[in-house]
Amino acid sequence: MKTSFIKLIVLLFSLGLYAQTGHIMQGVGSVNMSMGGAATAQPLDISGAMHWNPAAISVFDDKILKLDVGFFFSSPELSSSLPEGLLYPEGAFGPGSPASPAVYGTTKDDRGVSYMPALGMVWGNENSKHTFGVSAFGISGFGVTFPQETNLPMDMNGNPNMDWNPNNSNAINWPQGLNGFGRIESDYMLLQVSATYAYELTDKISIGIQPNFNYAALELNPNPIASPDFPPSMGGTGKGYPKADSTPAIGFGAQFGVFYDSGSGLKLGASYKTNQTFGEFEFDNEYLDGTDAPDVKFQMDYPAIMSLGLGYSFTNFDFALDFRRVFYENTEGFEASGWAIGDNGFPTGAVQGFGWKDISILSVGLQYKGISKLPLRLGYTYSGNPIDEDLAFFSTPATAIIKNAYQFGLSYEINDNWRLDAVYHYGDSNGATEGRILDPRQITPNNPLGEIPGTSVSYKMTTSMAMFGINYTFKKKTKD
Q1: Backbone angles phi, psi at 46, to 5 degrees
Q2: Is residue 260 over pLDDT 90?
Q3: 54-84: buried (b, 16+ CB within 10 Å) or exposed (e) per residue?
Q4: Res 83 pLDDT > 70
Q5: pLDDT of 160
Q6: 195 within 8 A of 225, measured Cβ to Cβ
Q7: Is the dihedral of CA 159, 162, 167, 168 positive or negative?
Q8: Which of 75, 218, 277, 396 has the maximum number of C-beta atoms within 10 A of its C-beta?
Q9: How far from each other are the two terminal CA atoms of the chain, in whole angstroms?
């Protein structure tokens, strides 16, 4: 029975996260999301407190159960361009024939709406210095589905297509036989199950610790971690990159926090989530024609995060401000970049990692409590972009860069036991992330990434979400 329940929880959260984009979720649950994710020093609900600062759960003196489900929609767009003459130079199809025209195209993600669950519970008692909590949160995910381009310059035999429109043709999604990637699909999810403990050192200062158990799954089609089967001219059979079905990995880590409540409105908090270290994803690869491809392994950890928070409560308002630093540069799977080099000293065509940079995140939220039983909240989140433009090509399976996110939320307090929460989120990438198309066959000492001059690859996206939650407080029975 216990094993079946665990499988059910993993299935529930994996289904919800598979269709998401965004590597680090800005918040957890309706209340925390509506505050822009700020909760390190302003614990308005148990989910935000457990996610961002384990010490902050000390403010809850009851047994509380919290469940949230969000309906999430993202709209990534992948674009590329080729300069005039790149496909074939002037005269390639006979004397006087023109050079190939400049090519530009955009592919839109064709995913639909998905859902995001969050489940947490806290046990507190006003007469005890100890507070406990457990949670199961989807804290990370990315995924795209860019279909294969059908507007092609030629067929697989190299015969020109007279109906081809170069102004609406995305070369990145051309079939692999035409040097594109074909259909690009990725799915990554990370479910974190945690046990949280907080201890009140004094009536104003608490400390907290949270060991984390992590379950992740990753699917890549095509799989750029594997070496492609190059064309016959390069000693291969031309099968290209293989694909890999979803494969799991298990990871462990921890989070530590401290929380200060002055008792007169001012609150301070700090926390540090360690690197969540995972085992390797073991990909069972298969070429697009159904034949077996060499298996590969890849380790991708979750980065360490430092959070500093400021909170202030007065009359009918609660204000929260969080600053975070995400350490991608020291994280396995994100710190490496470029093409793998084989034993013979030549590039294999396999990608070593994303090559992401450390980023900062700023979250700010305001709650208004002047309406009886109906608190209102506004939140804003700003996130840096971890992608170096020189390495943008490597992140096409993980295009989720949201720089600005805006939230509006509210709650309805039915009675002392029940509360309903809701939030609406909108985010945008504030323009496109852009770089050059890279090809390992173009690598030279002066061009170590194989950059193709005059080309471009870019991606941008928007996100929207409606999330609803229910909060139940187990009140103690009192004698008449």
Answers
A1: -70, -35
A2: yes
A3: bbbbbbbebbbebbbbbebbbebbbbbbbbe
A4: yes
A5: 79
A6: no
A7: negative
A8: 218
A9: 41
C-beta separation of 250 from 278 below 8 A: yes
Distance CA 237, CA 177 (A): 11
Is residue 290 predicted with pLDDT exceeding 90?
A: no
Q: Measure the CA–CA gap between 180 and 166, rounded to whole angstroms.
A: 15
- Give how far the C-alpha of residue 273 lies from the chain's centroid of Cα atoms, to the nearest Å: 17
- For residue 97, what pLDDT band results from cuts at 50, 70 and 90? low
Please say whether the beta carbons of 466 and 70 come within 8 A: yes
DSSP state of 275: P
Q: Which residue has the higher pLDDT, 197 or 139?
A: 197
Cis, peptide link before residue 222, omega less than 30° from 0: yes
Q: How far apart are CA 239 and CA 291, in angstroms?
A: 9
Asked whether 31 and 48 are in contact (CB, 8 A), the reply is: yes
Collapsing DSSP states into helix, strand and coil, what is residue 294? coil
Angle at 339 between CA 180 and CA 398, to 5 degrees: 60
Cα pseudo-dihedral 244, 335, 184, 456, rounded to 10: -150
pLDDT exceeding 90 applies to what percent of the chain? 54
Residue type, 216: A
Residue 220 pairs with which residues in a beta bridge? Answer: 186, 244
Best CA proximity match to 141, nearest among 13, 282, 290 = 13
How far apart (Å, rounded) are the C-alpha atoms in residues 463 and 144?
13
Q: How far is Cα 65 from Cα 51, in angstroms, rounded to an integer? A: 15
The widest CA-to-CA distance across the chain, in whole angstroms, is 102
For 135, counting Cβ atoms within 10 Å of its Cβ (0-12 exposed, 13-18 middle, 19+ buried), the class is buried
What is the four-CA torsion angle of 335, 288, 249, 193, rounded to 10 degrees? 100
Instruction: Please give the structure tokens belonging to residue 480.
Output: 């008449």
Strands (E), 181-338: 184-200, 205-221, 243-261, 266-273, 277-278, 281-283, 285-286, 296-298, 304-314, 317-327
